[in-house]
From TrEMBL:
Residues 1-44, 226-263, 325-366 are annotated as: Disordered. This is Ribonuclease H2 subunit B. CDD domains: RNase_H2-B. Residues 45-124 form the Rnh202 triple barrel domain. The lineage of its organism: Eukaryota, Fungi, Dikarya, Ascomycota, Pezizomycotina. GO terms for biological process: RNA catabolic process. The keyword Nucleus applies. Keywords: Nucleus. Non catalytic subunit of RNase H2, an endonuclease that specifically degrades the RNA of RNA:DNA hybrids. Participates in DNA replication, possibly by mediating the removal of lagging-strand Okazaki fragment RNA primers during DNA replication. Mediates the excision of single ribonucleotides from DNA:RNA duplexes. It comes from Apiosordaria backusii. GO terms for cellular component: nucleoplasm; ribonuclease H2 complex. Residues 10-30, 228-253 have a biased composition (Low complexity). Its main location: nucleus.
Length: 390
């Protein structure tokens, strides 16, 4: 019994040492991670010229009619929209580690689990006014909250002047004593939107250039026989030459035939490419910043010849693509028919051979069939009895 108590006491002492070592290592940890926040912060990139009085306010989106956040700087009357930037590959873990190098900063180092950021880009407040000016809405800026009123009433606020300057660009202004009256002008609005589209078309992003310009105007490739073209050009040149030269003897060409070259059926001219860029930019603005009804009205109000050369090219391109698709379909179907015919020939040949075998078997007598079943292994042939003796 004494030995049992001694062994138990030793085991207990070892366990106590292990527990105390673990507790000590935990207490001396370099850093303890805080609990995950239920409302983690978001990362915003703000413009340098935005003052400390800039505020994030909520206004109704002119395109979708939903409450949307905007950044407004009262001192310079600038508006900014937030563009969400996220990595394309969501399966790869990413995060933000934020810290400040300034000693007086109250920002502590922290980690943001979400890799997204929100970039503030310049925004024309004219888009906020268009739904009230050119639609049935009765409010100047629909569904604004108290934040916008506070921005307007701040000291030295330039927001009201900025909105007024944008009103003048699309409206006719009439002054009555101390009051100003504004009447929407469709022609001015079309000019402003087209001007924005032309400015955007000068520097499209590479992704839009590839998808909406290059691929949209790319024609199907066709083969050109260089030998035939050279022969045709030679014939044309000799037919227009003087008769004294045309009667000279000619020697056949011994050069090997060159392979046919491949080139697009048609190529868009620089003017067509510029029109496609302009239309792409215009469609982007109309589909992103204007109400659907106003976008449709603006498109119908454009002069009919604005994109006439582009429409002609696209019509020709559509026909060439249809012809190329039909040609590929014929090649595929033709190859399939050829394979089907070969299969039919093989099946017919096999059927004939089977039919001939059946006929042979039917014409064979019973005796011959029985003799065919006899085992002739080790038996001498009949011809062996008629050989000459040595």
């Amino acid at each position: 019994m004494a030995r049992t108590r001694s062994k138990g006491g030793a085991a207990s002492t070892s366990a106590d040492k292990t527990t105390s070592t673990t507790a000590k290592s935990a207490s001396t940890s370099a850093y303890t991670l805080p609990a995950e926040s239920s409302n983690p912060p978001k990362l915003f990139v703000l413009p340098k010229d935005a003052s400390s009085s800039a505020r994030i306010i909520t206004l109704e989106n002119p395109r979708y009619g939903k409450p949307t956040r905007y950044l407004v700087c009262p001192e310079n009357g600038s508006f900014y929209e937030f563009t969400k930037i996220a990595p394309p590959n969501k399966s790869t873990p990413r995060s933000w580690l934020l810290s400040s190098t300034e000693k007086a900063s109250i920002l502590e180092s922290q980690t943001i689990q979400s890799p997204e950021l929100y970039l503030a880009t310049p925004y024309d407040p004219l888009f906020l006014l268009l739904p009230a000016l050119f639609t049935s809405s009765s409010n100047l800026i629909p569904n604004t909250d108290r934040h916008f009123s506070e921005i307007l009433t701040l000291p030295n606020s330039q927001v009201e002047k900025a909105l007024e300057s944008r009103l003048v660009s699309v409206c006719d202004c009439v002054e009555l004593s101390d009051d100003k009256m504004y009447r929407p002008n469709d022609s001015k609005l079309s000019s402003v939107i087209l001007s924005k589209a032309r400015k955007m078309a000068e520097n499209l992003p590479p992704s839009m250039e590839e998808k909406f310009i290059k691929k949209a105007l790319e024609a199907p490739v066709m083969g050109i026989d260089s030998v035939s073209s050279e022969t045709q050009s030679t014939t044309n040149s000799t037919s227009t030459a003087p008769s004294a030269i045309s009667t000279a003897p000619t020697t056949p060409s011994t050069s090997p035939p060159s392979e046919p070259t491949f080139a697009p059926a048609i190529t868009a001219s620089p003017a067509i490419v510029s029109l496609q860029r302009l239309r792409t930019s215009l469609n982007f603005i109309l589909s992103s910043y204007l109400p659907p009804s106003l976008s449709k009205a603006l498109q119908s109000s454009l002069p009919s010849d604005t994109f006439a050369p582009l429409e002609e090219y696209l019509s020709q391109l559509s026909k060439l693509r249809a012809e190329a698709a039909a040609s590929r379909s014929n090649d595929i179907n033709g190859g399939k028919r050829a394979r089907d015919e070969e299969d039919d020939e093989r099946l017919e040949k096999k059927r004939k051979m089977e039919q001939e075998d059946k006929v042979k078997k039917a014409n064979t007598s019973r005796g011959v069939k029985q003799l065919a079943k006899v085992d002739t292994k080790g038996m001498m042939k009949l011809s062996a009895f008629f050989k000459k003796k040595a």
